[in-house]
Amino acid sequence: MEATINSCKLCAPLGASLAYLGMEGTIPLLHGSQGCATYIRRYLISHFREPVDIASSNFSESTAVFGGQSNLLTALANLKRQYNPELIGIASTCLSETIGDDVAGYLNGFDEVPTVNVSTPSYQGGHEPAFWKTGAKVLEKFAQKNTTIEQINLFPGMVSTEDIRYLKEIFFEMGIKAVLFPDYSERLDGESWSSHQKLPKGGTTVEEIRGSGSSELSVEFCTVWQDTPGNALSSACEVTNMRMALPIGINLTDAFFNTLKRPVPEKYLSERGRLVDAYMDNHKYIFEKKAILYGDQELVIGLASFLSEIGIIPVVVASGSKSGNLEEQIKSVISFGQDQVMVKEGIDFDQLTRLAEQFKPDLLIGSSKGYHIARELQVPLIRVGFPIHDRIGGQRTLHLGYRGTQALFDRIVNAILEKNQELSPVGYSYM
Amino acid sequence: MINILEQRKKQIYKKGEKHFDMKCETTSLAGSVSQRACVFCGSRVVLYPIADALHLVHGPIGCAVYTWDIRGALSSGPELHRNSFSTDLNEIDVIYGGEKKLLSTLIELIERYQPKAAFVYATCIAGLIGDDVSSICKKVAGLTRIPVIPVQSEGFKGTKKDGYAAACHALFSLIGTSGNEQKVPFSINILGDFNLAGETWIIKEYYARIGINVVATMTGDGRIDDIRGANRAELNVVQCSGSMTTLAKLMQEKFQIPFIKVSYFGIEDMSEALYSVVRHFDNREIMEKTTKLVSSEIERIMPTIADYRRKLSGKNAAVYVGGAFKAFSLIKSLRHLGMNVVVAGSQTGNNDDYTLLKDLSDEGTIIVDDTNPLELSKFIQEKKVDILIGGVKERPIAYKLGLGFCDHNHERKIALAGYEGMLNFAKEVYSTIMSPVWQFRVSREGTEDI
């Protein structure tokens, strides 16, 4: 099929906007049509259930003919007046890219507010590479090399707000000074307001980004994309970049803690211990169950490793994005059931539906957007990643570390148990 | 401190101020965080509910993916409209043109799904790279023998309203192509109802009860064959006039079908809608049935409404919706519940709409065109609002400040039209305002000078 039917990827400016929202005091500005900003806002709001302000330079027909310089400058001035942001994060769109707008050139001489800009036409890549690339642009712009200090940079990727909070807690407990970027854990999952906040608090500060060039190490939960903050910083400031898979499951979480080269606090050792105990108590319920896994590449890699270590076979691992590296990475993190795994990049939900009909999985793991497949096949859907539009608390889903794995493990086993119970003619309330 | 930008001041009016000259129907300010979308969005929302058509979005993936199955527009049969079809243009296509891809995509999709017609939405990129969408459509129509209709909805070529107009022209190209010109007696077309949560069905049932025949619904639970035969109706009944008046005018010109504007929201407007249709046909039997229907429906719902009214009396509401007509109905409905509308606005109202809105409003009510989150927050705090009525982008603004909210946008899953809908609406308003959770509200009670 040449058509894309029910896409499994989103467009590039969404990834850029989300990355910018992880910077303190930053307002994203999409240089293009109004619809781009509005659709992306609606999409993000439905997941995070928070106000998401993304500005647009609001192209008109004459802008498309004569170029977007004046709209861009007007937009910057208006944003300065209305929001007084610390940073304006500009991302281009298909429209401004296709007419050849030179955003960097237009910004020349504009110094009222610091700006970063990234090229993110929707026809190039998608939300995933754009998210990473935007992070790289921010670091290229602000990071400075100084005497190395005892500090670690962490670039976790497009993880949940609860994942970010958990990672920050780990660093705090281990006494490690860390720069975590981007950090939208407060801005996109904040408290009730006492009054309107134009730019809700929270996020990585420009100061922290500046200092990230002096860190002893960068850890980046990214294995398939190249244009990333860790790589940018490694080139610009020679900070060693440890690239690794998202720490989901025991194997990958162990690897993450090992990278930090500090003693693991008792708190996390006991989380690990309880998780091992849970694996052993419940292994039979899930042995050789078949799962279809779909979503962002880094997320499915972490999840595939986890499923494989508990005896579930990820018969299909699929992503709407295309990095060209997914299969290799999947094969490198899983052992159990490796010969039964099919890896698909650039997939849409139409193709995934047909694979699901063919493989008849016991469960689906991915975003809300696979719900219609789960409904058709009467298979439980474990909602993870982004977007979760049909449940509350999607933004707070914890996936990472021993604690996140425990939560996922319980949800998966219980989904299988619930299905069995529903289908049982007896209906035991005891097992 | 929230400043209103100088350029925005003419799009805001406070009832009671002497000079009224609302600036509207303009493009949004660069750098604003508008609640509006684009031309494409306007076309897409209008045509979306046509369930047996293929809707192909020609462009890079964004426009298609964000509009996948997002409306609450129900179908009683086929559900092809709930899919998102895209040519998903990539960089190579942008450089060398997307016509070939569009052609092969259309042919393969039409073969696979056998739709009754296809709509092809031209997005920003299709326009910029110069793809001749019309001639590809013509070619495919010839090959597949179904109508293949280009929708010129490049995002930057105007506002959402221009998108409505493009959708109307697309619909118009179908009407009168069924080969049957015989008028149906006592018949209407329903324009501008989108069958959100089954609202078209509610309205159709009322018409059936009073003996009015519905030829085509545009576009709620819409079918291509019905639309092609829409010229057989004697009257067009237009709700959501912002989107559908263009079509009604085109049909009046070509098929001499007169039109009336109505709203199905709230008790008065629903009743007035039925009566104005009946007045057009001037038939005693229909009038009697209508009077009976209206009084029995009102009798049925009034006791419950009165219960809600006792509890909601004196509460303040803010209304910010897409079209101005919806705002009028909401103001009247809220008055039925004993409530005050202290902020009212729309994304796309015109000058006449705002004059009407002003006349309908109480002293001190703030009227806004194309507002943004900053202004909206300012006004709802300033005016001590208890509930905001709007869409998904407005919802978090209300909740963050600890205020109630009611969704009156195209994503809603609860029917709000008709008498039944008025009951649902009252319940929605009641269940948000009366919730005990607001006891934990941390925002200051609306301060006067924010």
Written overview of the protein:
The complex is a heterodimer of chains A (431) and B (450). Chain A has 431 residues and is α/β, with parallel strands linked by helices. By secondary structure, chain B is α/β, with parallel strands linked by helices. Chain B folds into three domains: 134 residues, Rossmann fold; 105 residues, Nitrogenase molybdenum iron protein domain (Rossmann fold, 3-Layer(aba) Sandwich), CATH 3.40.50.1980; 139 residues, Nitrogenase molybdenum iron protein domain (Rossmann fold, 3-Layer(aba) Sandwich). Chain B is 44% helix and 15% strand. Chain B contains 17 helices and 14 strands. In chain B, the strands form three sheets. Chain B has a six-stranded mixed sheet with strand order 1-12-11-10-13-14. Chain B is globular. The N and C termini of chain B lie close together (6 Å). The C terminus of chain B is likely disordered. Chains A and B meet through β1, α1, α2, β3 and α3 of A and α1, α2, β3, α3 and α4 of B.
CATH topology of the largest domain in chain B: Rossmann fold
Number of helices of chain A: 17
* CATH-defined architecture of the largest domain in chain B: 3-Layer(aba) Sandwich
Distance between the termini of chain A: 47 Å
**What does the average pLDDT of chain A come to?**
96
Going across the biggest sheet of chain A, name each strand in turn.
Answer: 12-11-10-13-14
Low-confidence stretches of chain B: 446-450
Number of strands of chain A: 14
User: Please, what is the CATH homologous superfamily of the largest domain in chain B?
Assistant: Nitrogenase molybdenum iron protein domain
Q: What would you report as the Rg of chain A, rounded to the nearest angstrom?
A: 22 Å
Described by strand count, sense and barrel closure, the largest sheet of chain B is: 6 strands, mixed
**Shape estimate of chain B:** globular
Inertia-based shape of chain A: globular
Number of domains of chain B: 3
CATH class category of the largest domain in chain B: Alpha Beta
Oligomer state of the chains in this structure: heterodimer
